[in-house]
Description:
Layout: E1 11-16, E2 20-21, E3 27-28, H1 36-46, E4 51-55, H2 59-74, H3 79-85, E5 88-91, H4 94-105, E6 110-113, H5 127-133, E7 139-143, H6 151-156, E8 159-160, H7 175-187
Parallel strand pairs: 1-4, 1-7, 4-5, 6-7, 6-8
Antiparallel strand pairs: 2-3
Helix pairs in contact: 1-3, 1-7, 2-3
Amino acid sequence: xxxxxxxxxxxxxxxxxxxxxxxxxxxxxxxxxxxxxxxxxxxxxxxxxxxxxxxxxxxxxxxxxxxxxxxxxxxxxxxxxxxxxxxxxxxxxxxxxxxxxxxxxxxxxxxxxxxxxxxxxxxxxxxxxxxxxxxxxxxxxxxxxxxxxxxxxxxxxxxxxxxxxxxxxxxxxxxxxxxxxxxxxxxxxxxxxxx
Length: 195
């Protein structure tokens, strides 16, 4: 059982823009949605995420993400948003995130994928299992854009988290909503928001 006094290891999240699927199933690099940068950062800060990586191979998209982050970091009157946006790190490749976490934590993170699909053949954790495993190692949770992550990304994850509302018949949440729901299911009120 998840204990209030247990210490959760550092949690990281990454919003991936490649390799993603488009509506026709083709592998693409998706465009950055400007609201994802500040909104997911605020959610990340609320739930004690250590770093929020925005990952895209496109230089123009990285520049946009950096400008959005920097706008809020420079504003004196936006102290709470500045605190949240300070978590944002813009990277070209997922491998960079993994290496940075490994160096910072002294051990590699467990990597969990997310998908709304119920038909994937990869290992899934229950929410209870995921909360328990958060106590053992640093964790990197991957979120996709477009029509989701490719099989290549999903199959490389250590495990997948359960889909949200898998039986609803309509399961097309914005990634911002999915991040908030998943972080709440993983951490909820069980810690002080600092780790």
